[in-house]
Design goal:
The chain has two domains: about 5-100, Endonuclease, Chain A (3-Layer(aba) Sandwich), CATH 3.40.960; about 110-164, no CATH class. Helices cover about 35% and strands about 20% of the residues. It is built from five helices and six strands. Strand 5 and strand 6 form a beta hairpin. It is globular, with a radius of gyration of 20 Å.
């Protein structure tokens, strides 16, 4: 990841943009996108000087056509825009996310909650309250449980694998 991408990543990671989760270097079909928000189906591409070459431009056009064909919105941002005003770039990404939300895309929690509720918008994931009877959530084979010896939440698959 180049320095400009690292700068953008520090502002996108950890649900810092209104609670939306981003991934970096996400594969979609035969292509990779710089940053991707799966809940909004928003791909953010950072265009540096290499993207101005004719061969790279035709590749970028094919990739964008593919991404749009599979239902992704592609937001292209030049390195010069990022250098000029990073705040404006983040506001542009936030505006694109709001437009996607108006189209019906919703933020999703990073893990399912045991009570089936979604955390409030703009806030991070809150751990579910679990029963103290061994830590399993009834009726959920792959749900979340509590490790009795350490008092932490881990996937039940891991608990079952490590218990005697």
């Amino acid at each position: 990841m180049n320095p400009t991408e690292r700068l953008i990543w520090t502002r996108l990671r950890g649900r810092k943009v209104d609670g939306w989760k981003f991934r970096r270097q996400q594969p979609i079909g035969p292509y990779f996108v710089d940053f991707y928000c799966p809940a909004a189906r928003l791909a953010v591409e950072i265009d540096g000087p290499v993207h101005w070459e004719e061969a790279q431009e035709s590749y970028d056009e094919r990739r964008q056509a593919f991404l749009e064909a599979v239902g992704c919105r592609v937001l292209r941002i030049s390195v010069s825009e990022i250098s000029r005003d990073l705040g404006d770039v983040i506001d542009t990404i936030d505006a694109a996310l709001q437009e996607q939300e108006q189209l019906g895309f919703k933020r999703r929690p990073s893990r399912p909650r045991s009570d089936g509720e979604v955390p409030p918008a703009g806030r991070g994931f809150e751990e579910p309250t679990l029963p103290r009877n061994g830590g399993e959530v009834p009726g959920e084979a792959g749900g979340w449980g509590r490790s009795a010896d350490r008092g932490i939440h881990v996937p039940l698959r891991r608990l079952r694998r490590h218990r005697p």
